[in-house]
Write a structure and sequence with these properties.
- The structure holds two protein chains of two kinds.
- By secondary structure, chain A is mainly α.
- Chain A is 77% helix and 0% strand.
- In chain A, α11 packs across α12, α13 runs antiparallel to α16 and α15 runs antiparallel to α16.
- The longest helix of chain A is centred in the N-terminal third of the chain and has 36 residues.
- Chain A is flat and about 65 Å long.
- Chain B is an alpha+beta fold.
- Chain B folds into two domains: 230 residues, 3-Layer(aba) Sandwich (Rossmann fold), CATH 3.40.50; 122 residues, Beta Barrel (OB fold (Dihydrolipoamide Acetyltransferase, E2P)).
- Classes of the chains: A mainly alpha, B alpha+beta.
- Chains A and B meet through α11 and α12 of A and β6 and α2 of B.
Chain lengths: 293, 362
């Protein structure tokens, strides 16, 4: 008997159970239930995307009647979208805020996470605890004081008003601190003996070793920045400054919303995050599982 | 190569003192091993020498210069870590040349040094591999290579073989011994494995709870331990300890009675006048120093629980009538496993006596 045969040979108990008709039926039903539940979950997840794509090919009237099949208005909707809005401008605004915001958030928050984990101090845990506590404060409660602060700093209707509150993200600091716990302290010791200063250790050792953590953080932060709606709605007040999410929302608040056109805009707004996710997908999974192997 | 001088070295974490005043001289080209149980402070002491832990008080000199506050990279040391600490995103070549790159050495100089180290350690075919593509032994050789290229005055090894399997550990131990011979460098090596300590060291420093228990050549510690701790720590299997009481002093000999062996008396040539009649003491006998019955000074009979036959040597795990456990080593033994009891002899010249505080009585 080959090794494979030996390995796949069933134990007598399992073989007996498999030959029992009532056991077979039970296994079939339970497996069927699992597949049914998974199919429902998959459908719920994927339906908005299907609906978005189907609606982008239909007229507003068809969308409102709940037409769930592909139409022939895609090209007309695309043309309307690009003639109605200043697409290059709003994409540039969104891209600028998302990219600069992501870069700054990653720099500031990863440095903070590294510092919180690497440097011991009497107050470290107290400060970190206070930061985590702030995570529980909803943004709605922070909006007004934040707006007053920005107004006093004369930053309303500037990108600085969007970027400044976001770059020290408590969640990303927490995420980097947790990930840094897996960073071997011997690497830092070895680098110190090799003559590196602390900032060089961060740049030449920590950053490349933790690249999966950074990749996961890029996806999280970029998506949050790209999809940011409420705060930009409050502080950006001229059309020249507005981002794609604000413009799509303004389209839907028209007297007769052009749902097909809105869906074209939504598809275009989804593409960058999808692209980033697919490019960094492998690293994202590694980063979520722990960067250091 | 450099000598080291440690004077009154202390280390405290808050109120907890982990190194309690270490005085030690390490000569140039010497291979010194710090050995001791977990938590004795041996790694902390090594990290203080490396500059990775600040020295709370005391003086550290390397090559005649005070190094207490000098940056680790400027102490003339290189360190090999237990977990190798290779940079995972760099090839073997880049790992080995990394320190030189940051020291501003020209590229051809770095390449030359890396080539030389890889020749010594037979790493040439591995230079373009990443650490994850290497075996444990190869990684440790790269870690040693990374130390060699810096031409340090002192090599520091922090339990470098602990992560390797038994066979590879023996191989790497011989490699390190060969390297020491070839480089003639001062080396400080931390281990909890006393076989590594005995085989590699010119000098062993036995540490206990942040203090030096004894310093000496391996056989000096083995043959002449200063205290109960060193006697028990050096030697494998460890020395047997038997509870005893001083019962007499006769013609320069101290007579003790073994409490768990029916009061069997052993007369030892000990001149120490601090031991008095009635004092509780401990008699130490190494497993290999039990003689055949009648061929020593006092016979004891023990019950045998288990016999381990390793071929040439057998270890008998025995029990005294009073319950005390003993290990007895026998050469070329084949039949002891079948025995229920055995009578062996204690030779006074191979026995050690310790007072109640663990100090050796001589």
């Amino acid at each position: 008997m080959s090794t494979l045969d030996q390995a796949t040979e069933l134990s007598p108990a399992i073989a007996a159970r498999r030959s029992n008709p009532s056991f077979n039926l039970l296994a079939l039903v339970s497996r069927g239930l699992v597949y049914l539940l998974l199919s429902i979950a998959a459908f719920v997840s994927i339906f908005p995307f299907i609906w978005m794509f189907v609606s982008s090919t239909n007229t507003a009237a068809d969308v409102l009647t709940g037409k769930a099949t592909l139409g022939n208005a895609l090209w007309a909707n695309i043309v309307t979208f690009f003639t109605t809005v200043d697409a290059p401008r709003i994409f540039w605004n969104s891209a600028f805020l998302a990219i600069v915001g992501t870069v700054l958030t990653l720099i500031i928050s990863s440095l903070a996470g590294y510092g919180f984990e690497m440097f011991k101090s009497r107050f470290r845990e107290k400060i970190f605890g206070a930061l985590l506590l702030m995570l529980s404060i909803p943004f709605a409660a922070l909006m007004i004081p934040l707006f007053i602060m920005m107004a006093n700093l004369k930053l309303i209707n500037t990108y600085a008003a969007i970027l400044l509150p976001a770059i020290a993200s408590i969640f990303i600091i927490f995420y980097f601190r947790q990930a840094t716990k897996a960073f071997p302290s011997e690497l830092r010791d070895a680098a110190r003996i090799d003559g590196l200063k602390e900032w060089q250790i961060f740049l030449y050792v920590y950053l490349p070793v933790m690249r999966s953590t950074y990749a996961a953080a890029i996806i999280i932060v970029f998506m949050a920045n790209w999809n940011n709606y409420l705060w930009p709605l409050i502080v950006l007040q001229t059309n020249e400054q507005k981002t794609i999410t604000l413009v799509i929302q303004s389209l839907s608040s028209a007297y007769y919303p052009e749902w097909g056109v809105i869906m074209v805009g939504t598809i275009l707004a989804t593409l960058p995050t999808l692209l980033i996710f697919f490019v960094l997908q492998r690293r994202f999974v590694e980063g979520m599982l722990g960067a250091v192997k | 190569m450099s000598n080291l001088k440690l004077r009154g070295i202390r280390k405290a974490f808050g109120n907890l003192e982990v190194i309690k005043g270490v005085d030690l001289d390490i000569n140039s080209s010497e291979f010194v091993v710090f050995v001791g149980p977990s938590g004795c402070g041996k790694s902390t002491l090594l990290r203080m020498i490396a500059g990775l832990e600040p020295i709370t008080s005391g003086e550290l000199d390397i090559g005649g210069e005070r190094m207490n506050d000098v940056d680790p990279s400027k102490r003339g040391i290189a360190m090999v870590f237990q977990t190798y600490a290779l940079y995972p995103h760099m090839t073997v070549r880049e790992n080995m040349g990394f320190a030189l790159r940051f020291a501003g050495k020209p590229k051809d100089e770095i390449e030359k040094q890396v080539k030389e180290a890889s020749r010594i350690l037979e790493l040439d075919p591995l230079l373009d591999r990443l650490p994850k593509q290497l075996s444990g032994g190869q990684r440790q050789r790269v870690a040693i290579g990374r130390a060699i290229v810096r031409h340090p005055q002192v090599f520091l090894f922090d339990e470098p073989l602990s992560n390797l399997d038994a066979e590879l550990r023996v191989h790497m131990r011989i490699e390190i011994a060969r390297l020491h011979k070839e480089l003639k460098a001062t080396m400080i090596y931390v281990t909890h494995d006393q076989v590594e300590a005995m085989t590699l060291a010119d000098k062993i420093v036995v540490l206990r709870e942040g203090e030096i228990a004894q310093v000496g050549a391996p056989l000096q510690l083995y043959d002449n331990p200063d205290n109960l701790f060193v006697a028990g720590f050096i030697g494998s299997p460890k020395m047997n300890f038997m509870a005893a009481e001083v019962v007499d002093r006769d013609n320069g000999k101290l007579v003790v009675a073994l409490a768990n062996h029916g009061g069997t008396k052993v007369a030892l040539p000990i001149a120490d006048s601090s031991a008095n009649k009635g004092d509780k003491v401990t008699l130490g006998v190494r497993p290999e120093h039990f003689a055949d019955a009648g061929k020593g000074d006092s016979d004891i009979t023990v019950g045998i629980d288990v016999a381990e036959h390793l071929g040439q040597t057998s270890y008998l795990y025995a029990r005294a009538p009073g319950g005390e456990q003993l290990i007895i080593e026998r050469e070329e033994s084949r039949d002891h496993g079948a025995l229920d009891s055995l009578t062996v002899a204690i030779s006074a010249r191979h026995a050690f006596l310790f007072d109640a505080a663990g100090k050796r009585l001589r």
